[in-house]
Amino acid sequence: MDGQILHLALGLLDGRLTCIVFVLITYGKKLICFHRNHSCFTAPIFSERSCCALEYPRTFPSSILRSRRRRRRTAIGKPKKSSSAVGTSADGGKKSVAAARVTDGVWRLSETRESDLRKLRERGLIPQDREAVKLPGNKVIPRPPVGFRVMFLAFVLRGFSFPVHNFLHGLLFLYDIQLHHLSPNSLLHIACFVTFCECWLGIEPHFGLFRKLYSVKRQSGSDGVYPIGGCIISHRSNLLFFSFSMSESAQYWWRRWFYIRNSTVARQDFGLDPFDPSQKIEPKRSWKNQILDGEVAEIETLYLRVEDLQLIPEKEVNGVDIMHTFIKRRVQPLQARAQPMFLYAGCHDPTRVSAEEFSKGDLERNLRPLLKFKAGEDIPGKSLTSPFSASRPVLQV
User: Where are the domains of the chain?
Assistant: First the structure.
């Protein structure tokens, strides 16, 4: 291996050892490297011992994630009770004292009931095997059995089921956060982005575009950073993007948690990282979502398509319809699936969690709690550009 590739493998930046970079060979004779503090990139290989200019990959290959198996075992004590009256909203924003009912970001005894799990099973959102899902009993801080992970009811209802989608897994890895660090609306933003990429751009979720459109920040209260839902992902206000009209609060979402067995699909080497309540939310260089020079052109081309779907008459897409689409299709965007949604083939599609179609009333009952519209208010209708599917295929350029 020559010096250039060796520098990539060792993680040398300007001759300095920064961290280990994880290397693998993929199809197309490309060397793919990942550096948590910088970026993910590929190097075309013209021979076994040479490489040239770097280019940016569109998605996270599952193999990249093999590198991270950190397991920190520390003594777990009961967290200090918060003295703050300030809570957080579903997206982590601060609430006034009068509205501080949502969360103060501290673990509590789970209020999930067997009836809640039964409803999720009926909708196909969790495994039918009762041994794969467990109630935590009288535990205040989660202590999932070996092979299990901590899940929130609010996350399942916002598009996440096991096994975890590689894109979500990659974001957690890149930002060095755990699933419980995300707020419900942060997770819903990711689900909407995946749905938009697959159903209206006709591509797999594009990490470069995500970094352009979204920002990452920490949410704190008077007692410090919230250990639950303290990492907020939201779209940048200075860029034109869809308004999803998300509800500002999810009542006591952080109290409704349970254990679910970790699982993978054939293309994945492992599932979600083990739960670690001691891991703190610490900003990383990767949180800046910097765009590299070599990826600007591709990202800007995609962003022009995003603008077109909002500005060109007779083509407008509305954000609520993006949510409506994955709920109506009964597809969990953040679940690892056999195929993307632009190949969706109707009620017998293998990516559906249930073959049963929602009635109009059931569809609204599942959609409205995610939105800020009050009872009786009209929900925006369908977009003027229909989502891609097997019957409306992506045009090949």
Answer: 3-55, 82-392
